[in-house]
Design a protein that fits this description.
The structure holds 2 protein chains of 2 kinds. By secondary structure, chain A is α/β, with parallel strands linked by helices. In chain A, strands 1, 2, 3, 4, 5, 6, 7 and 8 form an 8-stranded mixed β-sheet that branches. Chain A is globular and about 70 Å long. The model of chain A has no long low-confidence stretch (mean pLDDT 96). By secondary structure, chain B is an alpha/beta fold. Helices cover 40% and strands 13% of the residues of chain B. In chain B, helix 5 packs parallel to helix 7. Chain B is globular and about 55 Å long. The chains are: A alpha/beta, B alpha/beta.
Protein backbone atom coordinates (compact mmCIF):
# COMPACT_ATOMS: atom_id res chain seq x y z
CA UNK A 1 0.00 0.00 0.00
CA UNK A 2 1.28 3.41 -0.89
CA UNK A 3 1.54 6.40 1.35
CA UNK A 4 -0.26 9.04 -0.67
CA UNK A 5 0.80 12.66 -0.54
CA UNK A 6 -1.90 15.29 -0.11
CA UNK A 7 -1.79 16.40 -3.75
CA UNK A 8 -2.19 12.79 -4.88
CA UNK A 9 -5.83 12.70 -3.72
CA UNK A 10 -7.27 12.09 -7.24
CA UNK A 11 -4.88 9.15 -7.68
CA UNK A 12 -5.61 7.66 -4.27
CA UNK A 13 -9.38 7.97 -4.88
CA UNK A 14 -9.13 6.13 -8.19
CA UNK A 15 -6.81 3.47 -6.83
CA UNK A 16 -9.12 2.99 -3.89
CA UNK A 17 -12.02 2.35 -6.25
CA UNK A 18 -9.93 -0.07 -8.32
CA UNK A 19 -9.06 -1.95 -5.15
CA UNK A 20 -12.72 -2.21 -4.15
CA UNK A 21 -13.81 -3.43 -7.60
CA UNK A 22 -11.12 -6.09 -7.57
CA UNK A 23 -12.21 -7.24 -4.14
CA UNK A 24 -15.80 -7.38 -5.32
CA UNK A 25 -14.84 -9.56 -8.29
CA UNK A 26 -12.85 -11.88 -6.05
CA UNK A 27 -15.75 -12.35 -3.67
CA UNK A 28 -18.39 -12.93 -6.34
CA UNK A 29 -17.19 -14.62 -9.51
CA UNK A 30 -20.41 -13.77 -11.37
CA UNK A 31 -19.45 -10.09 -11.42
CA UNK A 32 -17.05 -8.98 -14.12
CA UNK A 33 -15.35 -5.71 -13.20
CA UNK A 34 -12.40 -5.95 -15.60
CA UNK A 35 -13.74 -3.32 -18.02
CA UNK A 36 -14.39 -0.84 -15.27
CA UNK A 37 -11.05 -1.61 -13.62
CA UNK A 38 -9.24 -1.12 -16.92
CA UNK A 39 -10.99 2.19 -17.45
CA UNK A 40 -10.17 3.40 -13.93
CA UNK A 41 -6.57 2.26 -14.24
CA UNK A 42 -6.17 4.29 -17.39
CA UNK A 43 -7.67 7.31 -15.66
CA UNK A 44 -5.42 6.83 -12.66
CA UNK A 45 -2.37 6.67 -14.91
CA UNK A 46 -3.46 9.82 -16.68
CA UNK A 47 -3.99 11.59 -13.38
CA UNK A 48 -0.54 10.52 -12.24
CA UNK A 49 1.14 11.73 -15.44
CA UNK A 50 -0.77 14.96 -15.23
CA UNK A 51 0.01 15.66 -11.57
CA UNK A 52 3.67 14.67 -11.81
CA UNK A 53 4.29 16.69 -14.95
CA UNK A 54 3.60 19.91 -13.07
CA UNK A 55 4.76 19.40 -9.50
CA UNK A 56 5.35 22.61 -7.61
CA UNK A 57 8.64 23.01 -5.71
CA UNK A 58 6.80 22.31 -2.48
CA UNK A 59 5.24 19.15 -3.90
CA UNK A 60 8.68 18.04 -5.06
CA UNK A 61 9.91 18.63 -1.53
CA UNK A 62 7.23 16.21 -0.33
CA UNK A 63 8.18 13.63 -2.97
CA UNK A 64 11.88 14.04 -2.10
CA UNK A 65 11.02 13.28 1.54
CA UNK A 66 8.55 10.47 0.82
CA UNK A 67 9.08 7.77 3.46
CA UNK A 68 9.06 5.06 0.78
CA UNK A 69 11.55 6.82 -1.48
CA UNK A 70 14.59 4.60 -2.11
CA UNK A 71 17.48 5.57 0.15
CA UNK A 72 21.22 5.00 0.25
CA UNK A 73 21.06 1.33 1.27
CA UNK A 74 18.62 0.51 -1.56
CA UNK A 75 21.10 1.98 -4.03
CA UNK A 76 24.21 0.46 -2.47
CA UNK A 77 22.63 -3.01 -2.50
CA UNK A 78 21.75 -2.81 -6.18
CA UNK A 79 24.60 -0.77 -7.64
CA UNK A 80 27.70 -2.05 -5.92
CA UNK A 81 28.94 -5.61 -5.84
CA UNK A 82 30.76 -6.72 -2.70
CA UNK A 83 29.65 -3.55 -0.91
CA UNK A 84 31.64 -3.50 2.30
CA UNK A 85 30.57 -0.85 4.81
CA UNK A 86 33.27 0.74 6.95
CA UNK A 87 32.65 2.19 10.37
CA UNK A 88 33.99 4.88 12.64
CA UNK A 89 35.96 8.08 12.45
CA UNK A 90 38.87 6.67 14.52
CA UNK A 91 38.48 9.65 16.82
CA UNK A 92 35.25 9.38 18.74
CA UNK A 93 32.43 7.26 17.37
CA UNK A 94 30.59 5.56 14.56
CA UNK A 95 27.80 7.64 13.04
CA UNK A 96 25.33 5.61 11.02
CA UNK A 97 23.72 8.68 9.47
CA UNK A 98 26.65 8.55 7.07
CA UNK A 99 27.36 5.30 5.33
CA UNK A 100 30.76 4.80 3.80
CA UNK A 101 32.39 1.77 2.31
CA UNK A 102 34.19 -0.01 -0.45
CA UNK A 103 32.71 -1.93 -3.33
CA UNK A 104 32.81 -2.63 -7.01
CA UNK A 105 30.81 -0.65 -9.49
CA UNK A 106 30.41 -2.68 -12.69
CA UNK A 107 33.68 -4.36 -11.89
CA UNK A 108 35.62 -1.22 -10.93
CA UNK A 109 36.80 -0.71 -7.34
CA UNK A 110 35.19 2.38 -5.82
CA UNK A 111 34.56 4.10 -2.48
CA UNK A 112 30.96 4.95 -1.67
CA UNK A 113 29.77 7.61 0.77
CA UNK A 114 26.29 8.90 1.52
CA UNK A 115 23.54 9.58 4.02
CA UNK A 116 20.94 6.97 4.96
CA UNK A 117 17.65 8.17 6.42
CA UNK A 118 16.21 4.78 7.40
CA UNK A 119 12.84 3.37 6.41
CA UNK A 120 11.08 2.50 9.67
CA UNK A 121 11.12 3.89 13.19
CA UNK A 122 13.93 1.66 14.36
CA UNK A 123 16.23 2.25 11.41
CA UNK A 124 15.40 5.96 11.31
CA UNK A 125 16.58 6.30 14.88
CA UNK A 126 19.68 4.26 14.15
CA UNK A 127 20.54 6.51 11.19
CA UNK A 128 19.39 9.64 13.03
CA UNK A 129 17.04 10.39 10.12
CA UNK A 130 20.05 10.95 7.88
CA UNK A 131 21.34 13.91 9.89
CA UNK A 132 25.01 13.35 10.58
CA UNK A 133 27.12 14.45 13.50
CA UNK A 134 30.78 15.45 13.16
CA UNK A 135 31.81 11.80 13.40
CA UNK A 136 29.91 11.04 10.20
CA UNK A 137 31.78 13.71 8.29
CA UNK A 138 35.08 12.64 9.81
CA UNK A 139 34.38 9.08 8.67
CA UNK A 140 33.70 10.45 5.19
CA UNK A 141 37.00 12.36 5.30
CA UNK A 142 38.83 9.23 6.36
CA UNK A 143 37.35 7.14 3.56
CA UNK A 144 37.98 9.86 0.94
CA UNK A 145 41.59 10.14 2.04
CA UNK A 146 42.00 6.38 1.73
CA UNK A 147 40.27 6.27 -1.67
CA UNK A 148 42.66 8.99 -2.83
CA UNK A 149 45.69 6.98 -1.74
CA UNK A 150 44.50 3.83 -3.46
CA UNK A 151 43.26 5.62 -6.56
CA UNK A 152 39.62 4.61 -6.14
CA UNK A 153 36.93 6.84 -7.64
CA UNK A 154 34.40 8.13 -5.10
CA UNK A 155 30.63 7.97 -5.51
CA UNK A 156 28.57 10.02 -3.08
CA UNK A 157 24.82 9.56 -2.63
CA UNK A 158 23.43 12.61 -0.88
CA UNK A 159 20.18 12.54 1.06
CA UNK A 160 19.94 14.65 4.21
CA UNK A 161 17.74 17.34 5.65
CA UNK A 162 20.98 18.78 7.05
CA UNK A 163 23.73 18.17 9.56
CA UNK A 164 22.42 17.43 13.05
CA UNK A 165 21.98 20.48 15.29
CA UNK A 166 22.69 19.22 18.82
CA UNK A 167 24.83 20.02 21.84
CA UNK A 168 27.25 17.14 21.30
CA UNK A 169 27.56 17.87 17.60
CA UNK A 170 28.43 21.50 18.30
CA UNK A 171 30.78 20.56 21.10
CA UNK A 172 32.74 18.25 18.84
CA UNK A 173 33.02 20.76 16.02
CA UNK A 174 30.21 20.17 13.52
CA UNK A 175 31.26 23.22 11.49
CA UNK A 176 34.90 22.17 11.38
CA UNK A 177 33.98 18.62 10.34
CA UNK A 178 31.83 19.91 7.47
CA UNK A 179 34.49 22.39 6.36
CA UNK A 180 37.18 19.67 6.38
CA UNK A 181 34.98 17.28 4.47
CA UNK A 182 34.34 19.86 1.73
CA UNK A 183 38.07 20.57 1.75
CA UNK A 184 38.84 16.87 1.29
CA UNK A 185 36.42 16.69 -1.66
CA UNK A 186 38.37 19.53 -3.27
CA UNK A 187 41.76 17.96 -2.57
CA UNK A 188 41.50 14.35 -3.75
CA UNK A 189 42.99 13.44 -7.11
CA UNK A 190 40.40 10.76 -7.87
CA UNK A 191 37.05 11.32 -9.57
CA UNK A 192 34.05 12.21 -7.39
CA UNK A 193 30.55 11.69 -8.75
CA UNK A 194 27.76 13.03 -6.53
CA UNK A 195 24.07 12.24 -6.84
CA UNK A 196 21.44 14.14 -4.86
CA UNK A 197 18.92 11.34 -4.24
CA UNK A 198 16.30 13.16 -2.19
CA UNK A 199 17.19 16.13 -0.02
CA UNK A 200 20.40 18.07 -0.44
CA UNK A 201 20.25 19.91 2.84
CA UNK A 202 22.74 22.76 3.07
CA UNK A 203 26.22 22.35 4.59
CA UNK A 204 25.39 18.81 5.61
CA UNK A 205 25.01 17.99 1.92
CA UNK A 206 27.77 20.08 0.34
CA UNK A 207 30.30 18.42 2.68
CA UNK A 208 30.06 15.28 0.54
CA UNK A 209 28.54 16.72 -2.63
CA UNK A 210 31.50 18.79 -3.85
CA UNK A 211 32.11 16.48 -6.78
CA UNK A 212 33.52 16.71 -10.31
CA UNK A 213 30.05 15.88 -11.55
CA UNK A 214 26.86 16.50 -9.63
CA UNK A 215 23.47 15.11 -10.64
CA UNK A 216 20.04 15.36 -9.12
CA UNK A 217 17.10 13.04 -9.30
CA UNK A 218 14.18 14.70 -11.05
CA UNK A 219 12.21 15.39 -7.89
CA UNK A 220 15.13 15.88 -5.53
CA UNK A 221 15.72 19.26 -3.90
CA UNK A 222 19.00 20.97 -3.06
CA UNK A 223 18.99 24.06 -0.91
CA UNK A 224 20.87 26.33 1.46
CA UNK A 225 18.14 25.84 4.07
CA UNK A 226 14.92 23.82 4.28
CA UNK A 227 11.80 25.62 3.03
CA UNK A 228 10.45 25.51 6.60
CA UNK A 229 13.67 27.00 7.97
CA UNK A 230 13.67 29.77 5.38
CA UNK A 231 10.02 30.55 6.08
CA UNK A 232 10.60 30.79 9.81
CA UNK A 233 13.65 33.02 9.42
CA UNK A 234 12.62 35.21 6.49
CA UNK A 235 8.88 35.44 7.09
CA UNK A 236 8.96 34.48 10.78
CA UNK A 237 6.21 32.03 9.88
CA UNK A 238 7.09 28.41 9.18
CA UNK A 239 3.71 27.78 7.54
CA UNK A 240 4.91 29.78 4.54
CA UNK A 241 7.25 26.97 3.52
CA UNK A 242 5.43 26.54 0.19
CA UNK A 243 6.24 30.09 -0.77
CA UNK A 244 9.82 29.72 0.41
CA UNK A 245 10.22 26.53 -1.63
CA UNK A 246 9.21 28.39 -4.79
CA UNK A 247 11.24 31.52 -4.18
CA UNK A 248 14.45 29.74 -3.20
CA UNK A 249 14.90 27.79 -6.46
CA UNK A 250 15.54 24.34 -5.06
CA UNK A 251 14.45 21.97 -7.83
CA UNK A 252 16.66 20.02 -10.23
CA UNK A 253 15.50 22.17 -13.14
CA UNK A 254 16.37 25.36 -11.25
CA UNK A 255 19.84 24.11 -10.34
CA UNK A 256 20.50 22.94 -13.87
CA UNK A 257 19.53 26.37 -15.16
CA UNK A 258 21.86 28.04 -12.63
CA UNK A 259 24.74 25.85 -13.81
CA UNK A 260 25.19 24.16 -10.45
CA UNK A 261 24.43 20.58 -11.48
CA UNK A 262 25.46 18.67 -14.58
CA UNK A 263 22.32 16.68 -15.23
CA UNK A 264 18.97 15.39 -14.07
CA UNK A 265 18.08 11.72 -13.60
CA UNK A 266 14.49 11.13 -14.70
CA UNK A 267 12.22 9.44 -12.19
CA UNK A 268 9.40 7.04 -13.02
CA UNK A 269 5.95 8.65 -13.30
CA UNK A 270 4.74 9.07 -9.73
CA UNK A 271 8.22 9.42 -8.28
CA UNK A 272 11.18 7.18 -7.45
CA UNK A 273 9.23 5.26 -4.80
CA UNK A 274 6.77 3.91 -7.40
CA UNK A 275 9.55 2.08 -9.26
CA UNK A 276 12.79 2.00 -7.25
CA UNK A 277 14.45 -0.52 -9.57
CA UNK A 278 14.06 1.74 -12.59
CA UNK A 279 15.45 4.82 -10.88
CA UNK A 280 18.35 2.91 -9.32
CA UNK A 281 19.26 1.48 -12.73
CA UNK A 282 19.07 4.93 -14.34
CA UNK A 283 21.30 6.31 -11.59
CA UNK A 284 23.80 3.51 -12.22
CA UNK A 285 23.99 4.44 -15.89
CA UNK A 286 24.65 8.08 -15.09
CA UNK A 287 27.41 7.13 -12.63
CA UNK A 288 28.96 4.84 -15.26
CA UNK A 289 29.02 7.54 -17.92
CA UNK A 290 30.48 10.12 -15.56
CA UNK A 291 33.19 7.78 -14.27
CA UNK A 292 34.16 6.78 -17.81
CA UNK A 293 34.56 10.45 -18.69
CA UNK A 294 36.49 11.41 -15.59
CA UNK A 295 38.79 8.39 -15.47
CA UNK A 296 40.48 9.60 -18.64
CA UNK A 297 41.88 12.65 -16.81
CA UNK A 298 45.13 12.60 -14.82
CA UNK A 299 44.68 13.26 -11.10
CA UNK A 300 46.24 16.73 -11.07
CA UNK A 301 44.00 17.89 -13.87
CA UNK A 302 40.94 16.37 -12.21
CA UNK A 303 41.58 18.36 -9.09
CA UNK A 304 42.35 21.56 -11.00
CA UNK A 305 39.18 21.20 -13.08
CA UNK A 306 37.07 20.43 -10.01
CA UNK A 307 38.27 23.55 -8.25
CA UNK A 308 37.68 25.60 -11.38
CA UNK A 309 34.18 24.13 -11.67
CA UNK A 310 33.31 25.63 -8.30
CA UNK A 311 35.09 28.93 -8.87
CA UNK A 312 33.10 29.32 -12.10
CA UNK A 313 29.71 28.83 -10.46
CA UNK A 314 27.70 32.04 -10.64
CA UNK A 315 30.25 33.95 -12.71
CA UNK A 316 28.17 33.66 -15.88
CA UNK A 317 24.85 34.67 -14.36
CA UNK B 1 11.60 71.93 26.51
CA UNK B 2 12.46 75.56 26.04
CA UNK B 3 12.03 78.17 23.36
CA UNK B 4 14.98 76.83 21.38
CA UNK B 5 13.51 73.39 20.90
CA UNK B 6 10.13 74.85 20.23
CA UNK B 7 11.03 77.53 17.74
CA UNK B 8 14.59 77.53 16.57
CA UNK B 9 15.22 73.87 15.91
CA UNK B 10 12.27 73.19 13.67
CA UNK B 11 13.47 76.05 11.48
CA UNK B 12 17.02 74.76 11.27
CA UNK B 13 15.76 71.28 10.59
CA UNK B 14 13.61 72.46 7.73
CA UNK B 15 16.55 74.38 6.30
CA UNK B 16 18.85 71.38 6.38
CA UNK B 17 16.24 68.90 5.31
CA UNK B 18 15.38 66.18 7.76
CA UNK B 19 18.81 65.44 9.10
CA UNK B 20 19.05 62.38 11.23
CA UNK B 21 20.26 62.92 14.73
CA UNK B 22 22.73 60.17 15.65
CA UNK B 23 20.65 57.73 17.61
CA UNK B 24 23.18 56.03 19.79
CA UNK B 25 25.35 58.64 21.38
CA UNK B 26 25.34 56.52 24.49
CA UNK B 27 25.90 52.83 24.15
CA UNK B 28 24.84 50.32 26.73
CA UNK B 29 27.15 47.49 27.73
CA UNK B 30 25.18 44.29 27.08
CA UNK B 31 26.88 42.66 30.04
CA UNK B 32 26.75 45.25 32.81
CA UNK B 33 24.25 47.77 31.49
CA UNK B 34 26.79 50.55 31.93
CA UNK B 35 26.30 53.50 29.55
CA UNK B 36 29.38 54.52 27.56
CA UNK B 37 29.73 57.62 25.40
CA UNK B 38 30.20 56.56 21.76
CA UNK B 39 33.49 58.44 21.36
CA UNK B 40 34.98 56.73 24.37
CA UNK B 41 33.90 53.42 22.96
CA UNK B 42 35.41 54.15 19.55
CA UNK B 43 38.65 55.24 21.14
CA UNK B 44 38.81 51.95 22.98
CA UNK B 45 38.26 49.91 19.78
CA UNK B 46 34.60 49.24 20.61
CA UNK B 47 35.56 47.44 23.81
CA UNK B 48 33.59 48.66 26.85
CA UNK B 49 36.39 50.12 29.02
CA UNK B 50 35.14 48.93 32.41
CA UNK B 51 33.73 45.49 31.63
CA UNK B 52 36.01 44.54 28.73
CA UNK B 53 32.97 43.48 26.70
CA UNK B 54 33.82 43.31 22.99
CA UNK B 55 31.15 45.11 20.94
CA UNK B 56 30.90 44.52 17.19
CA UNK B 57 33.45 46.65 15.39
CA UNK B 58 32.68 48.30 12.03
CA UNK B 59 34.66 46.73 9.18
CA UNK B 60 36.32 49.95 8.06
CA UNK B 61 37.40 50.77 11.59
CA UNK B 62 38.77 47.26 11.95
CA UNK B 63 41.02 47.61 8.92
CA UNK B 64 42.19 51.06 9.94
CA UNK B 65 42.94 49.88 13.43
CA UNK B 66 44.75 46.75 12.28
CA UNK B 67 47.18 48.17 9.76
CA UNK B 68 50.22 50.23 10.79
CA UNK B 69 49.32 53.94 10.88
CA UNK B 70 45.89 52.99 9.52
CA UNK B 71 47.42 52.73 6.04
CA UNK B 72 46.35 50.06 3.57
CA UNK B 73 45.31 49.57 -0.02
CA UNK B 74 41.63 48.68 -0.22
CA UNK B 75 40.93 45.82 -2.63
CA UNK B 76 38.32 46.58 -5.31
CA UNK B 77 34.80 45.13 -4.98
CA UNK B 78 34.39 42.45 -7.66
CA UNK B 79 31.29 42.65 -9.85
CA UNK B 80 28.79 39.83 -9.45
CA UNK B 81 25.23 39.17 -10.57
CA UNK B 82 22.75 41.10 -8.42
CA UNK B 83 19.77 39.19 -7.11
CA UNK B 84 19.88 36.37 -9.68
CA UNK B 85 16.89 34.61 -8.07
CA UNK B 86 14.78 37.81 -8.05
CA UNK B 87 14.17 36.92 -4.46
CA UNK B 88 11.46 38.34 -2.32
CA UNK B 89 10.41 37.53 1.24
CA UNK B 90 8.60 40.12 3.32
CA UNK B 91 10.70 42.60 1.34
CA UNK B 92 12.47 42.48 -2.02
CA UNK B 93 16.09 41.35 -1.77
CA UNK B 94 17.01 44.16 -4.17
CA UNK B 95 15.58 46.65 -1.65
CA UNK B 96 17.38 44.99 1.24
CA UNK B 97 20.63 45.41 -0.67
CA UNK B 98 19.86 49.06 -1.34
CA UNK B 99 19.09 49.72 2.32
CA UNK B 100 22.23 47.96 3.51
CA UNK B 101 24.35 49.93 1.07
CA UNK B 102 22.97 53.19 2.38
CA UNK B 103 23.30 52.07 5.99
CA UNK B 104 26.91 50.85 5.73
CA UNK B 105 28.28 52.82 2.78
CA UNK B 106 29.60 49.50 1.45
CA UNK B 107 28.81 47.44 -1.68
CA UNK B 108 28.44 44.26 0.32
CA UNK B 109 29.64 42.71 3.57
CA UNK B 110 33.30 42.11 2.71
CA UNK B 111 36.06 44.70 2.96
CA UNK B 112 39.60 43.63 2.20
CA UNK B 113 42.90 45.43 2.31
CA UNK B 114 46.58 44.82 1.89
CA UNK B 115 49.10 46.52 4.10
CA UNK B 116 51.48 46.02 7.00
CA UNK B 117 50.68 44.93 10.52
CA UNK B 118 53.60 45.64 12.86
CA UNK B 119 55.76 45.47 9.76
CA UNK B 120 54.33 42.19 8.44
CA UNK B 121 52.71 42.49 5.03
CA UNK B 122 49.34 40.74 4.86
CA UNK B 123 45.91 40.75 3.27
CA UNK B 124 43.09 41.25 5.78
CA UNK B 125 39.48 40.34 5.04
CA UNK B 126 36.72 41.72 7.26
CA UNK B 127 32.97 41.11 7.41
CA UNK B 128 30.73 44.11 8.08
CA UNK B 129 28.02 42.59 10.26
CA UNK B 130 25.69 45.52 9.66
CA UNK B 131 25.46 44.56 6.00
CA UNK B 132 22.69 41.95 6.14
CA UNK B 133 24.21 40.25 9.15
CA UNK B 134 27.53 39.76 7.42
CA UNK B 135 25.88 37.06 5.35
CA UNK B 136 27.81 35.13 2.74
CA UNK B 137 26.49 35.51 -0.78
CA UNK B 138 28.00 35.73 -4.24
CA UNK B 139 29.52 39.17 -3.71
CA UNK B 140 31.18 38.13 -0.46
CA UNK B 141 32.33 34.81 -1.91
CA UNK B 142 33.91 36.50 -4.91
CA UNK B 143 35.54 39.21 -2.76
CA UNK B 144 37.04 36.48 -0.57
CA UNK B 145 38.32 34.51 -3.56
CA UNK B 146 39.91 37.67 -4.98
CA UNK B 147 41.49 38.52 -1.64
CA UNK B 148 43.08 35.08 -1.42
CA UNK B 149 44.33 35.44 -4.99
CA UNK B 150 45.85 38.78 -4.06
CA UNK B 151 47.62 37.22 -1.06
CA UNK B 152 49.03 34.56 -3.39
CA UNK B 153 50.39 37.15 -5.86
CA UNK B 154 51.71 39.28 -2.99
CA UNK B 155 53.26 36.15 -1.46
CA UNK B 156 51.90 37.13 1.93
CA UNK B 157 49.60 35.69 4.62
CA UNK B 158 45.86 36.28 4.77
CA UNK B 159 44.03 37.11 7.98
CA UNK B 160 40.25 36.65 8.06
CA UNK B 161 37.91 38.39 10.50
CA UNK B 162 34.54 36.70 10.08
CA UNK B 163 31.39 38.21 11.61
CA UNK B 164 28.42 36.57 10.01
CA UNK B 165 25.07 34.94 10.54
CA UNK B 166 25.98 32.44 7.80
CA UNK B 167 24.86 31.96 4.21
CA UNK B 168 22.67 34.66 2.63
CA UNK B 169 19.33 32.95 2.22
CA UNK B 170 18.10 35.44 -0.36
CA UNK B 171 20.61 33.92 -2.80
CA UNK B 172 19.47 30.36 -2.15
CA UNK B 173 21.69 27.61 -3.47
CA UNK B 174 24.14 30.16 -4.91
CA UNK B 175 25.02 31.18 -1.37
CA UNK B 176 25.60 27.54 -0.41
CA UNK B 177 28.02 27.29 -3.34
CA UNK B 178 30.19 29.89 -1.64
CA UNK B 179 31.25 27.20 0.84
CA UNK B 180 33.22 25.18 -1.72
CA UNK B 181 34.24 28.33 -3.61
CA UNK B 182 35.88 29.95 -0.60
CA UNK B 183 37.38 26.59 0.39
CA UNK B 184 39.09 26.43 -3.01
CA UNK B 185 40.59 29.84 -2.26
CA UNK B 186 41.89 28.66 1.14
CA UNK B 187 43.46 25.59 -0.48
CA UNK B 188 45.22 27.70 -3.11
CA UNK B 189 46.82 29.89 -0.45
CA UNK B 190 47.90 26.87 1.57
CA UNK B 191 49.48 25.34 -1.51
CA UNK B 192 51.28 28.62 -2.16
CA UNK B 193 52.88 28.10 1.26
CA UNK B 194 51.37 31.16 2.92
CA UNK B 195 49.78 31.18 6.37
CA UNK B 196 46.05 31.60 6.80
CA UNK B 197 44.92 32.95 10.17
CA UNK B 198 41.29 33.27 11.25
CA UNK B 199 40.31 35.74 13.97
CA UNK B 200 36.78 34.74 14.95
CA UNK B 201 34.66 37.68 16.04
CA UNK B 202 31.12 37.93 17.32
CA UNK B 203 29.16 36.25 15.83
CA UNK B 204 30.48 33.59 13.45
CA UNK B 205 27.84 31.04 12.57
CA UNK B 206 26.35 28.71 9.97
CA UNK B 207 27.87 28.35 6.52
CA UNK B 208 30.73 30.72 7.29
CA UNK B 209 31.84 28.60 10.23
CA UNK B 210 31.33 25.49 8.09
CA UNK B 211 33.85 26.71 5.51
CA UNK B 212 36.66 29.27 5.57
CA UNK B 213 36.24 30.27 9.23
CA UNK B 214 37.26 26.81 10.43
CA UNK B 215 40.07 26.11 7.97
CA UNK B 216 42.78 28.39 9.33
CA UNK B 217 46.30 27.31 10.22
CA UNK B 218 45.74 29.29 13.40
CA UNK B 219 42.39 30.14 14.97
CA UNK B 220 42.15 33.11 17.30
CA UNK B 221 38.90 34.32 18.82
CA UNK B 222 37.89 37.57 20.46
CA UNK B 223 36.59 37.14 24.03
CA UNK B 224 32.94 36.24 24.41
CA UNK B 225 32.20 35.82 20.70
CA UNK B 226 29.39 33.48 19.69
CA UNK B 227 30.83 30.85 17.36
CA UNK B 228 28.77 27.93 16.15
CA UNK B 229 27.31 25.96 13.28
CA UNK B 230 23.69 25.72 14.41
CA UNK B 231 22.38 28.58 16.52
CA UNK B 232 20.93 28.25 20.00
CA UNK B 233 17.32 28.61 18.86
CA UNK B 234 17.61 25.82 16.28
CA UNK B 235 19.22 23.47 18.79
CA UNK B 236 16.68 24.22 21.50
CA UNK B 237 13.85 23.57 19.06
CA UNK B 238 15.40 20.26 18.02
CA UNK B 239 16.34 18.81 21.38
CA UNK B 240 13.83 20.73 23.51
CA UNK B 241 16.15 21.41 26.38
CA UNK B 242 18.03 24.39 27.73
CA UNK B 243 21.62 24.82 26.63
CA UNK B 244 24.53 24.95 29.07
CA UNK B 245 25.91 28.29 30.30
CA UNK B 246 28.51 29.83 28.01
CA UNK B 247 27.67 27.35 25.22
CA UNK B 248 29.24 28.29 21.87
CA UNK B 249 31.38 31.14 23.17
CA UNK B 250 35.04 31.67 22.29
CA UNK B 251 36.07 30.35 25.69
CA UNK B 252 33.91 27.26 25.20
CA UNK B 253 35.50 26.61 21.81
CA UNK B 254 38.96 27.02 23.32
CA UNK B 255 38.09 24.40 25.91
CA UNK B 256 36.76 22.08 23.20
CA UNK B 257 39.81 22.38 20.99
CA UNK B 258 38.37 24.42 18.14
CA UNK B 259 40.45 27.59 18.60
CA UNK B 260 44.09 28.08 19.56
CA UNK B 261 43.68 31.15 21.72
CA UNK B 262 41.27 33.79 22.91
CA UNK B 263 42.86 37.19 22.26
CA UNK B 264 41.65 40.60 23.41
CA UNK B 265 41.07 43.05 20.57
CA UNK B 266 43.88 45.33 21.70
CA UNK B 267 46.38 42.48 21.47
CA UNK B 268 45.39 41.16 18.07
CA UNK B 269 47.85 43.08 15.83
CA UNK B 270 50.84 42.15 17.97
CA UNK B 271 49.76 38.55 18.35
CA UNK B 272 49.16 38.21 14.62
CA UNK B 273 52.53 39.73 13.77
CA UNK B 274 54.31 37.48 16.24
CA UNK B 275 52.71 34.26 15.01
CA UNK B 276 53.16 35.18 11.34
CA UNK B 277 56.80 36.12 11.88
CA UNK B 278 57.52 32.78 13.50
CA UNK B 279 55.62 30.82 10.83
CA UNK B 280 57.38 32.60 7.99
CA UNK B 281 60.77 32.47 9.76
CA UNK B 282 61.18 36.23 10.01
CA UNK B 283 63.41 37.68 12.73
CA UNK B 284 61.93 38.69 16.06
CA UNK B 285 61.15 42.38 16.64
CA UNK B 286 60.77 44.41 19.81
CA UNK B 287 56.99 44.90 19.47
CA UNK B 288 56.20 41.25 18.89
CA UNK B 289 58.52 40.16 21.70
CA UNK B 290 56.65 42.35 24.13
CA UNK B 291 53.32 41.21 22.72
CA UNK B 292 54.09 37.62 23.61
CA UNK B 293 53.62 38.33 27.28
CA UNK B 294 50.36 40.19 26.79
CA UNK B 295 48.80 37.52 24.60
CA UNK B 296 49.65 34.67 26.94
CA UNK B 297 48.12 36.58 29.80
CA UNK B 298 45.04 37.21 27.68
CA UNK B 299 44.47 33.55 26.86
CA UNK B 300 45.22 32.27 30.35
Amino acid sequence: MHNYLDFEKPISDLEGKIHELRKLAEEDESIDTSDEVGRLEARSREAMVDIYSKLTPWQKTQVARHPQRPHFLDYSAKLFEEFTPLAGDRKFAEDEAIQAGLGRFRGQSVAIIGQEKGNDTKSRLRHNFGSARPEGYRKAIRVMEMADRFGLPIVTLVDTAGAYPGIGAEERGQAEAIARSTEMCLNVKVPIVSIILGEGGSGGAIAIATGDRVYMLQHAIYSVISPEGAASILWRDSTRAKEAASNMKITADDLKALGIIDGIIQEPVGGAHRDPEAVIAATGNVIADALRDLSAKPGDQLRRDRRQRYLDIGRQL
Amino acid sequence: MNWITNYVRPKINSMLGRREVPENLWIKCPETGEMVFHRDLEENKWVIPASGYHMKMPAKARLKDLFDDGAYEALPQPKVAQDPLKFRDSKKYADRLKDSRIKTDQEDTILAGVGKVRGVKLVAVVHEFNFMGGSLGMAAGEAIVKAFERAITEKCPLVMFPASGGARMQEGILSLMQLPRTTVAVEMLKEAGQPYVVVLTNPTTGGVTASYAMLGDIHMAEPGAEICFAGKRVIEQTIREKLPEGFQTSEYLLEHGMVDMVVKRHDIPDTLARVLRILTKKPVTETTKAAGVVAIAASA
